[in-house]
């Protein structure tokens, strides 16, 4: 019998988190979900905050459940969403709860920053897509509004790094998560110190940068005592959830593939060896984020299934309860192409009455207004698929590389209606799976760091051998081509 190696992945999204035990043996990876818990922003006096210590308590519960299995863990690691951060004081204590990326005080902050650093210069130095909630803008908002935590801070830790710190005591910035903040030089792969200085941010708060698949240390002695366990290795992985998800894309050596990490957000892009910082990349607002194995994740953020989730949340508050399966069936039965929206319109970013916002967009653009749940969800899903087509075409133009296959990973791959719409819109092959792409990538990064796997290519071969995939082919090309021309009239090119 071959030797088994076990790792524990903590995969946190904006609405839920999970602890997943991964067992690697015979070139295959087995998964077992041990613990799942809810997550979400908390509204405190009009600000939106993350309950960081509550999340850490849930992670400890997940670790205890793994230890109770009697397995020997070769590591644990945390991945989360991007851009958000916590601050430590000089004693290593947290300065309050971290704000969330949908915080309302970020509205309009980009224009404030561009008065100091012009947009083209900031892009040329960082290569990151402009969104109000990027870390650089969050820090600028703290300074603008006199947030007392900023001058008191000694260390900035991105969300997964903060949780890794609580486990290991190591304060550092993992490269892939740090790259989401619009504060790194993508060519030098170091902090963009001139940007930091120009904005008057304190240099001292930016910690050392470490690459994914690096050992952070071991479980702190106090936690070993609390959990009655031996020291467990703690790893930095692709700590940005998309970096881990892309590491789990089951692509081989074939050229011409792009990826879509589908969930609350849709992140659609290509894996490059070097950043793309051209004027057209700036104009089209593409991002160059760090990847596993020295790669650049050249991609665009698209609003994703947040549109569906917030519709469902709105109806739930009205005591109208629909499962996601219910909504998919209602959407499938609804009239096609009745109403379309730009998924990245700014009005859709913050929590609230999403159906009313979808109606507002349609009303402003002279389209029929959605009225039924099926019409709302069909509008959202068709609009996402068409936005994916626009993005794939832009990627081809920017990189000079044709895209023949889209690998779709993550929880959104379970939405079979959106999968088919995506294949229809793209008229390219769409391969879905694995569903737990982010957690799988987290586990594989630990295995790479521990030497249980030798390369990113070997890790992806493990994915192909371990998890089912489904292939979708495009249908109804004339109808989707016609509606795409209409969609382009509703959506800006950036």
What would you note in describing this structure?
The chain is of the alpha/beta class. It has two domains: 5-236, Nucleotidyltransferase, domain 5 (2-Layer Sandwich); 249-433 and 454-494, 2-Layer Sandwich (Nucleotidyltransferase, domain 5), CATH 3.30.420.40. It contains 19 helices and 21 strands. The termini are far apart.
Give a topology summary.
Blueprint: E1 5-12, E2 16-25, E3 28-38, E4 42-44, E5 47-49, H1 52-68, E6 73-79, E7 85-88, H2 109-114, H3 119-126, H4 135-144, H5 149-152, E8 155-158, H6 159-168, E9 173-174, H7 175-178, E10 184-185, E11 190-191, H8 193-198, E12 209-210, E13 214-218, H9 221-227, E14 233-236, H10 241-247, E15 257-262, E16 266-272, H11 279-283, E17 287-290, E18 296-302, H12 306-317, H13 324-332, H14 354-364, H15 373-399, E19 405-409, H16 416-426, E20 429-432, H17 437-450, H18 456-466, E21 470-472, H19 477-488
Parallel strand pairs: 1-6, 6-14, 9-12, 15-19, 19-20
Antiparallel strand pairs: 1-2, 2-3, 4-5, 7-8, 10-11, 13-14, 15-16, 16-18, 17-18, 20-21
Helix pairs in contact: 10-17, 13-15, 15-16, 15-19
Quick tags:
21% strand; alpha/beta; single chain; globular; seven-stranded mixed sheet; 39% helix; Nucleotidyltransferase, domain 5; six-stranded mixed sheet; 494 residues
Terminal residue distance? 54 Å
Relative strand content: 15-25%
Instruction: Specify the CATH homologous superfamily of the largest domain.
Output: ATPase, nucleotide binding domain
The total count of strands amounts to 21
In the CATH scheme, the class of the largest domain would be Alpha Beta
């Amino acid at each position: 019998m071959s030797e088994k190696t076990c790792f524990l992945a903590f995969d946190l999204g904006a609405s839920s988190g999970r602890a997943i035990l991964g067992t690697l043996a015979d070139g295959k990876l087995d998964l077992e979900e041990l613990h799942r818990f809810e997550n979400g922003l908390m509204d405190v006096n009009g600000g939106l905050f993350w309950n960081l210590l509550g999340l850490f308590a849930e992670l400890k519960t997940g670790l205890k459940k793994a230890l109770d299995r009697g397995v020997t863990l070769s590591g644990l690691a945390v991945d989360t969403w991007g851009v958000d951060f916590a601050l430590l004081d000089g004693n290593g204590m947290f300065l309050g709860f971290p704000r969330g990326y949908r915080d309302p005080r970020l509205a309009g902050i980009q224009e404030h920053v561009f008065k100091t650093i012009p947009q083209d210069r900031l892009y040329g130095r960082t290569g990151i897509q402009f969104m109000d909630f990027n870390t650089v803008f969050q820090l600028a908002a703290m300074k603008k509004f006199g947030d007392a935590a900023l001058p008191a801070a000694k260390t900035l830790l991105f969300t997964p790094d903060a949780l890794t710190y609580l486990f290991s005591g190591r304060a550092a910035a993992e490269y892939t998560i740090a790259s989401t903040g619009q504060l790194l030089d993508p060519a030098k792969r170091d902090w963009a110190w001139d940007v930091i200085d120009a904005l008057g941010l304190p240099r001292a708060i930016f910690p050392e940068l470490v690459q994914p698949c690096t050992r952070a240390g071991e479980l702190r002695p106090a936690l070993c005592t609390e959990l009655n366990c031996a020291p467990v290795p703690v790893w930095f992985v692709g700590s940005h959830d998309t970096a881990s998800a892309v590491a789990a894309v089951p692509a081989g050596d074939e050229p011409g593939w792009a990826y879509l990490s589908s969930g609350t957000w849709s992140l659609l892009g290509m894996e490059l060896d070097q950043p793309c910082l051209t004027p057209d990349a700036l104009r089209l607002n593409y991002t160059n984020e760090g990847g596993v194995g020295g790669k650049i994740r050249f991609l665009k953020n698209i609003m994703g299934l947040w549109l569906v989730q917030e519709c469902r949340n709105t109806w739930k508050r009205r005591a109208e309860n629909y499962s996601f399966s219910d909504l998919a069936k209602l959407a499938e039965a609804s009239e096609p192409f009745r109403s379309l929206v730009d998924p990245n319109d700014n009005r859709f970013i913050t929590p609230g009455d999403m159906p009313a916002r979808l109606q507002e967009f349609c009303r402003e653009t002279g389209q029929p207004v959605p009225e039924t749940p099926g019409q709302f969800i069909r509008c959202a899903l068709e609009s996402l698929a068409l936005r994916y087509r626009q993005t794939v075409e832009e990627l081809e133009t920017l990189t000079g590389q044709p895209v023949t296959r889209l690998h779709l990973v993550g929880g959104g791959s379970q939405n079979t209606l959106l999968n088919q719409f995506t294949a229809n819109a793209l008229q390219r092959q769409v391969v879905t799976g694995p569903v737990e792409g982010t957690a799988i990538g987290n586990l594989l990064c630990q295995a790479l760091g521990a030497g249980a796997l030798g390369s990113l290519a070997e890790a992806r071969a493990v994915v192909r051998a371990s998890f089912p995939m489904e292939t979708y082919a495009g249908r109804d090309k004339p109808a989707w081509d016609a509606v795409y021309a209409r969609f382009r009239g509703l959506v800006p090119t950036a």
